[in-house]
Amino acid sequence: MSSSANLYREAAANVDAAADDLGLEPTVRDILSSPQHELIVNFPVQRDSGEYVMFQGYRIQHNNVLGPFKGGMRFHPAVDLDEVRALATWMTFKSALVRLPFGGAKGGVAIDPAKHSRSEMERVVRRFTHSLGENIGPGYDIPAPDVGTNAQTMAWMMDTYLNSRGPAERQGARGVVTGKPIEIGGSLGRAEATGKGAAYALRHLYGEYDRSLGDQTVAIQGFGNVGSHGAVALEELGMKVVAVSDATGTVHADRGLNIDALIAHANSASGVAGFSDAETLTTDEFFALDVDVLMPAALEAQITADNVDSIQARVVLEAANGPVTAAAAEKLHAGGVDVVPDILANAGGVIVSYYEWVQNKTQHHWSAGDVDSQLRNTIWDACDRVAARRNGAGSTRRHAAYLEACDLLQSVYELRGIFP
Ligand code: GLU
């Protein structure tokens, strides 16, 4: 079985375990076990050389019982159907857990953005958006950034969508995507939201321990949007970021890395490698660091049966989607390591996406302070509910989070009934 097929199987297994505990109605379990819609589009794009190449894009719409489909667009060479299915499934449970009126979706294209010019990427984004046609829309399915996409990607998606619609449909249609640049309807605080949300979840956890985060050490894998903003937020909470690892290498300093300087370096050098004022480590050494918190903020399946025994951290904060495999999570739990599950730890992004969508709908503008306090309250409310479930059931935080999410989905199906 391919690793992404495995990933999808694991996404479904989390739901099954919660369904068993809750005695979930068999039809609801069946509905949640497979995506509602799976769209594959093949489209040509002209390269700068003049030749045309074909790309394959996906949009998986897992469930929309709570509201419009919602989730990111990933551009990465390893994107395939099963990976996007798993990511779409997680979005449904993430939105349900933090009580957003959204369903779950995810999309992507198997492409390495680093191998294409800006103008080629623009053509890929526009042609992909055009191919999705009526399958996206502000009241139907709302994409956002994910790995390999950013605010500029969303600007091109929005512009393509608006230009393919008549004038009557354009009103309020900026909400077709979230994570946009501020100038065209993005929200203050959206860029920082996922990293900040993870920091708030960690602060809540330490509150449960009745301990302070001051001087606690953290190692971060990934220094893109989530890892870099997460590093800033954790440093603001008084933590020492002692190691950062990305695709270019790992940098480490026991006294703590200077995050502002590391961000400036990573921006100019396209990665953390070569940062002066730090020693380098191998990936294996990075995962084996004796730190208080390990924050995987890159791709899925990074902590697996192969390296889990080397982990010395006391807490694993899943800022990426699916960074710890099920087998590894079990081992960590058995060894007393607290794993803050992805659908809670990285929900900050979609939470502030929701605020952006609301601002687009109402034509109001929220201040950075309003966004931040709402984000914090929403994450802490979910943390409270997960902790309460866990004390009741004595389960892992991941299982408690799925119980919380499935319970809401079950109630909604009960109230609405299953059509027709
Ligand atoms: N791609 C992000 C995630 O995995 C954000 C999704 C969104 O804002 O819709 O949660």
State the end-to-end CA separation: 37 Å
Biggest sheet: strand arrangement: 9-8-7-6-10-11-12
Overall, the morphology is globular
CATH topology of the largest domain: Rossmann fold
Please give the number of β-strands: 12
SSE-based structural type: alpha/beta
Mean pLDDT equals: 96
Reported CATH architecture of the largest domain:
3-Layer(aba) Sandwich
Major sheet details = 7 strands, mixed
Looking at this structure, what is the CATH superfamily of the largest domain? Leucine Dehydrogenase, chain A, domain 1
Strand content: 15-25%
CATH class of the largest domain: Alpha Beta
Low-pLDDT runs of 5+ residues are: none
Order of helices and strands: HHEEEHEHEHHHEHEEHEHEEHEHHHH
Helix content: 40-55%
- Which ligands are bound? glutamic acid
Number of helical segments with 4 or more residues:
15
Q: How many individual domains?
A: 2
Radius of gyration: 21 Å
Describe the fold and architecture.
The chain is α/β, with parallel strands linked by helices. It has two domains: 3-175, Rossmann fold (3-Layer(aba) Sandwich); 193-340, Rossmann fold. It has 15 helices and twelve strands. The protein has a seven-stranded mixed β-sheet with strand order 9-8-7-6-10-11-12, sandwiched between helices. The protein has a five-stranded mixed β-sheet with strand order 1-2-4-3-5. Bound molecules: glutamic acid (GLU). Glutamic acid (GLU) binds at residues 70-72, 144, 146, 178-179, 321, 346, 349-350, 353. Glutamic acid binds at residues 70-72, 144, 146, 178-179, 321, 346, 349-350, 353.
